[in-house]
């Protein structure tokens, strides 16, 4: 028979996770937008920490294992893209969702490779319908 001990820190961590069992980090410097996003994320049942600077992002990620980071690109003490690159260079592999008001082409995040079904979908558009093949 295995005996497990649970200390106060473990109980506190479980309480912070929320009913989904996932913990997210929101990095947004606009207090109003941070509040709106935090309310939505919390109401969906996720545990959430919210910070407003790149420095706080690094400190939070060093202290807590997050399941997802939601980050704004325009932060007061640094660029969100540079922060993401630094996290990846330090081997942090949690998913990162970018939320930004930037609209320039250079600010867009692109996939490194096309999705797996894209070639078949594109091929089906090139094959004439009278061949009887549908992708």
Share of residues in helices: 25-40%
Mean pLDDT reading? 77
Largest sheet: 4 strands, parallel
Helix and strand run: HEHEHEEEHEH
Total strands? 6
Which shape, going by the Cα principal axes? globular
CATH homologous group name = Response regulator
> Spatial order of the strands in the main sheet?
2-1-3-6
Number of separate helices: 5
Overall domain count? 1
Strand content: 15-25%
What is the CATH fold-level name?
A: Rossmann fold
Q: Any idea what the CATH architecture is?
A: 3-Layer(aba) Sandwich
Low-confidence stretches: none
Indicate the structural class. alpha/beta
- What's the alpha carbon Rg, rounded to whole Å? 20 Å
CATH top level class name: Alpha Beta
Amino-to-carboxy terminus distance: 55 Å
Description:
The protein has 135 residues and is an alpha/beta fold. It has one domain (12-106): Response regulator (Rossmann fold), CATH 3.40.50.2300. 39% of the residues lie in helices and 16% in strands. It contains 5 helices and 6 strands, in the order H-E-H-E-H-E-E-E-H-E-H. It has helices at 8-17, 31-43, 54-63, 80-89, 118-126, and strands at residues 23-27, 47-51, 68-71, 74-75, 78-79, 96-98. The chain has a 4-stranded parallel β-sheet, sandwiched between helices. The chain is globular and about 40 Å long. The termini are far apart. The mean pLDDT is 77.
């Amino acid at each position: 028979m295995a005996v497990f001990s649970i200390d106060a820190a473990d109980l506190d961590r479980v309480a912070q996770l929320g009913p989904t069992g996932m913990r997210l980090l929101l990095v947004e410097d606009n207090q109003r937008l941070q509040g709106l996003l935090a309310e939505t994320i919390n109401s969906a049942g996720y545990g959430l920490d919210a910070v407003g600077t790149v420095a706080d992002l690094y400190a939070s990620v060093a202290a807590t294992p997050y399941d997802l980071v939601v980050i704004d690109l325009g932060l007061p003490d640094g660029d969100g893209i540079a922060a993401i690159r630094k996290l990846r260079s330090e081997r942090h592999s949690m998913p990162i969702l970018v939320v930004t008001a930037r609209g320039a082409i250079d600010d867009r995040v692109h996939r490194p490779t096309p999705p797996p079904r894209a070639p078949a979908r594109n091929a089906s558009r090139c094959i004439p319908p009278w061949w009887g093949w549908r992708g």
